[in-house]
Amino acid sequence: MDNIDKENQEIFQEFYESEITFTKGISSVNPNLTSVQEVILLYLKELSFYLLKLKNFGITNNKIKETVMYAIFNIITNAEYNQDQFHALISNLYEYINQSKILYEKYCLEHDILIEVPKTYFKYSKSFDLSDAIRKGEKYFLKRSQFFTPKQKDLYEIVLFLGKSMGVKILELQRLGADHDEGYYNILLLFNTIVPRDFSEETVEKQIAQTIEVYYDTAKKVFYKQIELYGNITPTEVSFSTKPGKAILVSGSDFKKLELVLKATEGTPISVYTHGMEMLMAHAFPKIKAHPNLAGHFGSGLESSLIDFASFPGAILMTRGTLQKVEYLYRGRLYTLDPIAPPGCSKIEDFNFEPLIKSALEAKGFTHETIKPPMKVGFCEQEIIKKIDDIIDKIKAGEINYLYFVGLLNAPNPVYKSYFEEFFKLMPKDCYVFSLCCPINTEKIYHLDSFYDYSLIYKILKEIKTKISIRDLNLTIFLTRCDKHTISNLLYLKHIGIKNIYMCKCPTTLITPSIIKTLTNTFGIKEITAPQKDLNETLNK
User: Fold this and answer.
1) Which of 10, 216, 339, 469 is deepest in the core (most CB within 10 A)?
2) Fold (topology level) of 233-362
3) E-only strand ranges, 161-268
4) How many helices (DSSP H) and strands (DSSP E) are in the chain?
5) Which H or E run includes 192?
6) Which numeric CATH code is attached to 380-538?
7) Where are the beta strands (DSSP E) in 131-244?
């Protein structure tokens, strides 16, 4: 807390010492917002029915797509609407439902096609206000809870996770100048499966399987689009130190917005720092790293945003809405380009970064240098392929019988560090590990400093698959990262034939215990417990 100014110390201490306040401020969604999101989802489900029918007739509408993605983005970021914003969205969705319905029925009549009518349990209105939405959203939530069995409730939540995860990837692609219609229509298909009374577990599970295939394709497109724009990933040492002077912090995952800030601050005395583990990887791309005002990385990650933001003595750009009701910690230093700015966060209009730069110049900045150990990110693809060839040869020769993947950590975690140190010591000699989180290199362990998203794991698995069947391997994957994409990646790994998958213990505000139970019972995914117990299970002892 040394870098937090005295005016903010008492406020920060209140947050720091109060677990309840901290949880409400950062991780959870308030009940009123949940009810509002329920209503928006109902409109999206109704609209999805007609949009999918029209797509089958070869009829699409990009303006409607923009509104749908806008609504999905606001659900992903838990954006809090004011009355005018909510009314505008609901009015648009209402009009699009009616327009799409009329067009669908007209086409059916003209082509002698039987008109299908979706079953609805909700009265749609153009003039909903927020108080109406809160009441009706809560009422519908309770009604849905009565209709659904416990498993159906969990499958419903998994569908929402997948829809949000897919939405994030599509939005990332759009920001990079590309698009993915298949992903967009897959989200509509997901919404179209979660209707009470007609809810079919078999249909939903089939749609989940299809969605994770499309999710993987979308994530792959994001990965290669980044390479196209910013160059091939290279091993890079990232500074976690700070230097005296004015500063801007760019938090989140949007490399495009980071690049825009770097260009906007060229020629100014402002140093730009990244924040969050996804943004950390930006340093491994040559065209981003080449900017002279990119000073390094700051803070512990998005989970520690409250501490990191409060202690950063400059302006902050959030590239996705992640915080709620903590605006008074930042005294007008918080900015965003998101469609709806969180409370206390100033919106950047038309990519005009002058207010952000002005705020950084007026803030006190770093008064002295701090020295912290750097961190390595990135990888050398040729080196990885060479290592994989060596491992495959040893597998075929019978020298390696068990293969493990470990990663990715959101941030250094002493609990999992000690867990895997013990796990590695207990492994038999015929085991081998690809580790993306614990910096240990031995004859049995190959450590990669990537800290990237799941794409590196998939690159390695794809390379292995060209030489040996994944389903024939004794292979276990430990996913130690918990975020909005965790469920998507757990299910995709299971889908491609990974026999044993373990996940870290996630906060209940992100993945509830009942969903964990469904992941275990329905999809065979387990939680990490103790090194010896988990090792014995993977070795079938």
Assistant:
1) 216
2) Rossmann fold (3.40.50)
3) 236-238, 246-251
4) 20, 14
5) helix 181-193
6) 3.40.50.2030
7) 236-238
